[in-house]
Every structure is written in C-alpha cells, then in structure tokens.
Design goal:
The chain has one domain. The termini are far apart. It contains 2 helices and no strands. The chain is mainly α.
C-alpha cells in the first residue's frame, strides 16, 4: 500500500494525536491499578483509625458491666457479712445469761 504525498500531509498532523491516544490507552490499566492501590491504602488507614475509636454506646455498656460486677461483689460481701453475723448471734444466743449484766472494774 503506497502513501501519496497528499495523504501524507493529512496523516502527519494526526500522528501526534494518535500517539497521545495510544499512550493514554496503554497507561490506563497502570493508572487504574495505582488508583485502586491508593484507595485500598486509604481504606486501610481509615479502618485502623476506626478500631482505636470506641462509640459512646459501647463505653456505656462497658461502664454498665463494670458497675454490675461491682454490685455483684458488694452483694456477695453483704451476704457474707450477714452469714457471719448470724453465726455470731447463734453462738451468743446459746447462753441465756450472757449480755444482761456488765462487769465494771475501777
């Protein structure tokens, strides 16, 4: 296929335009891959920051659990004190004369 001089004059200015289009087409997959890599990195950084932050509702749940644990411990202590006081009352209630008279020494 021969190219005539008139055709050459028309094709020559279009060569630079076609060259630009081809380079854009060849670089498009690489550019897209770079862009997706940047997006993935930004998402990873955002997720990493999200892990460090706790919503207020979760803080409230944690506080409620701590308070619940503390109240359970207090209830156990109260029950233990009650059982100890009942045991001490049982020991003193065996003697009918104890606790009625005071011995005072000067």
């Amino acid at each position: 296929m021969t190219v005539r001089s008139v055709d050459m004059q028309v094709m020559l200015p279009k060569v630079s335009h076609v060259g630009k289009q081809q380079s854009v087409q060849q670089q498009a997959p690489q550019n897209q891959q770079d862009w997706m890599g940047q997006q993935a990195q930004q998402n990873a950084e955002a997720n990493q920051k999200k892990v460090l932050q706790t919503p207020q509702s979760e803080d409230a749940k944690i506080d409620a659990q701590r308070e619940g644990n503390q109240s359970k411990e207090e209830q156990k202590k109260k029950q233990k004190n009650k059982s100890e006081s009942k045991d001490s009352k049982k020991e003193t209630s065996n003697d009918p004369h104890s606790g009625r008279h005071f011995d005072i020494r000067v």
